[in-house]
Design brief:
five-stranded antiparallel β-sheet; globular; 12 helices; 22 strands; alpha+beta; 3 domains
């Protein structure tokens, strides 16, 4: 924090802050309205941010945590890579996890913003692309033993050099991906997005001047720093530890454990991660992605007010453990599933360790990701299609000490920023029929406050053979409850993948696999809900009856988990002996 600082008019500060927030929102709207793939324009699997000339994040959107946490080290890695070879008119592209990318499907675009010949800002846009080449459509290869079997790795490269488009580089990228039309449309949308950020930031400096804007940005960073330090200072000094379990994904690895040790000293926080050695399976996490997991666990605990920028993390020191471990992977470890698994488990471990220090801030875990990607050939235009179906992995939020978890808002790694969109848009875009999309009864964890219910999703290909790739977890353990919340009917709160012939279930899968689905067959996802909060027997009986009436809780679960007998004929309720006790 600077010792000498220009005095800032609070109204000017508020206006500059509002201009940053508006710019970020305009960037997001630009991407949504101009992108071609459903991953961008329907699911909103992207994030935008602005950085200062020191490559510090000065504003982030209410976007995807797995993107935002990793953007900070990635921005610095890209800036350091090019050094002095950064010029007005450049546009840089990057996805390499070895250089702080999250995973190779999250492709990030960086535009340096110059003012009167001097680098002032960076306009940044990261999005999950539909495909990244490699042997498996959509990039998620559960059989990959190293990252070379996953897809195209892109170290920092320039798509525009001093304002001149590098068509050879862009064509090289497009030649290595399926669904080229969608991919190019999304790439061009990202270009438009970072230019919006550049335009608005130049206009801001035109209005207020370099010194005034820089002073406001420094103050916003300091405000975030003070906010986090104030919270940490209220937590008792000490060392706190928690462990979360990473489920066996069916590849003979068994259960893996990730531990977080948090040391609080005054207004500083040190977080040390311990994880097992990296594995020959796509759940290894490189450093950039693991930082995102740590930051998400921290923010679930902190719940601080905006501004949200890099100043929040000045007082946080992170040790990811030795290289070559699950949460600090080393080349060439396979990794594509890392943004969900183990990122969500890592976030849980960090959050629960912090909650050891301040139990009154405990919250239920969100449901973890368990979804599918689909691919095939569209006979309408004889083009290959590939998409990550975000609607297939929508889970429930964890409950808090004040409220039930939100239904159909997860998974934890995206924290409410994903949207499933209209089913009709997906059916129009791809040659598929979606037979089911709705809430899963009894999927939310029981508690004084109930965890949010998850969704179920079921699809059938039309007139073609469809490839389905499943990924994620949440199929062996329900989401973790808080403050005494428990789950008597745990089997109802687990995710799974179902393969069906018509309406008949012919296979239930709890491990990740590549499937071939023909017309007449269906594949469905049943997702995990969020964890509850508090003793379920303390939930008001009228609220339990309301949940039964609205399809969130079954009559059987109301009695088993909440001790409430519900008469659905007269819509009355009474306490069981267990509740009375």
């Amino acid at each position: 924090m600077s010792n000498t600082r220009r005095k800032i008019d609070p109204i000017t500060l508020a206006v500059v802050r509002g201009a940053l927030e508006t710019t970020q929102r305009e960037m997001s709207l630009t991407l949504e309205k101009t992108a071609r793939s459903s991953v961008f324009n329907v699911a909103h699997d992207y994030s935008n941010a602005l950085f200062n000339h020191r490559a510090e994040m000065i504003i982030q959107g209410q976007d995807i945590p797995i993107h935002l946490g990793g953007l900070m080290p990635a921005m610095k890695a890209v800036a350091n890579y090019f050094g002095d070879d950064i010029h007005e008119g450049d546009i840089i592209y990057h996805n390499d996890p070895v250089m702080m990318g999250s995973h190779i499907l999250d492709c990030c675009m960086y535009k340096p913003v110059f003012y009167q010949g001097k680098l002032m800002f960076w306009s940044v846009c990261k999005g999950h692309v539909t495909d990244i080449g490699g042997p498996v459509p959509a990039g998620y290869n559960p059989d990959a033993k190293d990252m070379f079997a996953e897809g195209l790795r892109i170290p920092p490269i320039k798509l525009y050099d001093r304002g001149v488009e590098r068509k050879d580089v862009i064509n090289f990228l497009l030649a290595n991906v399926r669904s080229r039309r969608d991919w190019e449309g999304d790439l061009r949308a990202q270009m438009g997005t970072v230019q919006i950020g550049e335009r608005n930031m130049i206009a801001l400096v035109d209005k207020y001047g370099v010194e005034e804007v820089q002073a406001c940005l420094d103050e916003l960073l300091d405000m975030a720093d003070r906010s986090m330090r104030s919270l940490i200072a209220q937590v008792p000094d000490g060392v706190y530890q928690a462990t979360a379990v990473l489920e066996d994904a069916g590849h003979g690895l068994g259960e893996l454990k990730i531990s977080a040790t948090v040391t609080i000293t005054a207004d500083n926080c040190h977080i040390a991660i311990a994880s097992p050695p990296q594995v020959p399976y796509f759940i290894n996490s490189y450093a950039g992605n693991s930082y995102s997991g740590v930051y998400l666990g921290l923010m679930m605990f902190a719940k601080v007010a905006p501004p949200y920028n890099e100043g929040l993390y000045r007082c946080i020191d992170i040790d990811l453990g030795p290289m070559g471990t699950l949460c600090n992977a080393q080349e060439p470890a396979p990794h594509v599933n890392c943004t969900t698994t183990p990122m969500e488990t890592l976030a849980d471990a960090v959050r629960m360790a912090l909650e050891q220090a301040a139990p009154d801030r405990a919250v239920g875990s969100w449901g973890h990701s368990s979804g599918v990607n689909i691919a095939g050939r569209d006979t309408r235009n004889n083009e290959e299609y590939v998409t990550m179906v975000l609607a297939s992995l929508i889970s429930g939020a964890g409950a808090t000490e004040h409220m039930d978890g939100w239904n159909a808002v997860g998974p934890e790694c995206c924290f409410g920023a994903l949207t499933s969109g209209d089913i009709e848009i997906l059916e129009y875009s791809y040659p598929i029929q979606i037979h089911r999309y709705g809430l899963v009864k009894d999927s939310g964890g029981a508690g004084r406050y109930r965890g949010g219910c998850a969704t179920q999703w079921e699809v059938e290909p039309l007139d073609h053979e469809m490839t389905v790739i499943s990924f994620g977890e949440g199929r062996h353990y329900p989401a973790i409850g808080a403050n005494g919340a428990s789950s008597a009917c745990e089997s109802l709160k687990l995710g799974r993948i179902e393969r069906k012939l018509g309406d008949e279930v012919i296979e239930v899968m709890r491990s990740n696999a590549i499937l071939t689905i023909n017309p007449g067959e269906r594949v469905g996802t049943i997702n995990p809900g969020g964890g509850g909060w508090g003793n379920a027997m303390e939930r008001p009986m009228e609220q339990v009856m309301y949940d039964v009436r609205n399809g969130y809780v079954s009559v059987e679960a109301a009695e088993a988990e909440y001790g409430v007998q519900v008469d659905t004929g007269n819509w009355t309720c009474s306490a069981t002996a267990a509740r009375q006790a």
